[in-house]
Design brief:
The chain is an alpha/beta fold. The chain has twelve helices and twelve strands.
Length: 306
């Protein structure tokens, strides 16, 4: 397992993160087993959100690990707030209330990282900054980050907030790759040249903001995994099998490796609820794909290298 020292912090985190959005689909013993297996494989970071399972996922997680101070010290806990039922809310009141709920459900008195889940079009940077500073001063949150934000949105918040945002969690996989697509087609008259992200990946690299890739196996917006989809992704699946054999892993490991091979030191947030897939994903933590292999997977996914 590869670990990343996060710039501007004392956080040393695995580049594979266990995403906890789906853990309410498991029974208690399976949940315990999955978390234990991830930790034994070297995962030390867990991703939550106040909305996962309507809060149930955080509660079930705390129960599964029998949260106490010695368990707590062994893990880096991240959660998110800002999404409500059908709208986004970065108001001071909502942020503070949400974090109190998260801490209660996780049976802890501090979060290592709080992410602002999705940009609130009505955000007031000074109000957000005040809320985050209050959480920091109270010892409730150690570090902050954002999710699904572009550079200008980050800068807008950053200008008001004295502390650096350390993370940006975004959807990214070999089949969902706007973060790298347009950078390969600058100034061309093709669709790929349209910059859908505002050069977010380059901005994050320039500013030492660690990118976390969510839904590493999903096509579209939760439309199911691309691995095994031979109708739409036959060539990609074939390529993953071929490289899996070369590196002694499974295609799941190769899908993860496509992300971890990127020099931006991307963290991959695995959402699997299966022990076997968790281990297969962890095996992709540091596979040294060659440039030819990385681009080969990208093209096999239907992307163009102009
Ligand atoms: N910041 C955000 O806006 C945002 C949005 C979404 C998610 N997230 C975070 O990212 C994490 C990961 O998201 P995700 O769960 O969508 O990611 P994912 O790991 O891409 O998808 C996991 C799902 O795909 C299934 N799956 C994966 N590979 C498969 C295969 N080869 N065959 C059949 N099924 C397969 C899994 O089934 P099994 O359980 O059976 O393996 C599971 O249901 C979440 O837990 C959450 O922490 C963040």
């Amino acid at each position: 397992m590869k670990y990343l020292q996060i710039p501007g912090s004392d956080l040393k985190v695995s580049n594979i993160v266990m995403g906890c959005m789906r853990i309410n689909g498991l029974d208690a013993p399976a949940r315990e087993n999955l978390i234990r297996t991830a930790m034994e494989a070297g995962v030390n970071m867990f991703d939550h959100a106040d909305i996962y399972g309507g809060g149930e996922c955080e509660e079930l997680f705390a129960e599964a690990v029998q949260m106490n101070s010695s368990v707590r010290e062994k893990m880096v806990l991240q959660s998110k707030c800002g999404i409500r039922n059908g709208y986004y809310d970065f108001s001071r009141e909502h942020i503070l209330k949400s974090v109190d709920g998260i801490l209660k459900r996780l049976h802890t008195d501090y979060l290592d990282i709080l992410l602002l889940h999705r940009p609130d079009a009505l955000m007031e940077p000074e109000e957000v900054a005040e809320a985050l500073q209050t959480l920091f001063d109270a010892g409730k949150v150690r570090y902050f980050g954002v999710s699904n934000q572009n550079p200008a949105q980050i800068e807008l918040l950053q200008r008001a907030f004295g502390q650096k945002f350390l993370f940006n969690q975004l959807q990214m996989s070999v089949v969902h790759s706007p973060l790298v697509d347009s950078g390969m087609a600058v100034n061309m008259h093709i669709d790929q040249s349209v910059d859908r992200t505002g050069s977010t990946l380059e901005y994050c690299r320039l500013n030492n903001i660690t990118i976390q890739a969510w839904s590493p196996f999903q096509k579209g917006f939760f439309e199911g995994p691309f691995l095994g989809d031979l109708e739409k992704y036959a060539e990609l699946n074939r390529k993953c099998e071929e490289l899996a054999e070369k590196y002694g892993v499974t295609p799941t490991g190769i899908a993860v490796a496509w992300l971890t091979r990127h020099p931006a030191n991307i963290q991959v947030v695995l959402g699997t609820t299966r022990l076997s897939r968790m281990l297969e994903g962890c095996a992709g933590s540091e596979i040294p794909l060659t440039r030819e292999e990385w681009y080969g997977l990208y093209k096999a996914a239907g992307n163009m290298v102009p």
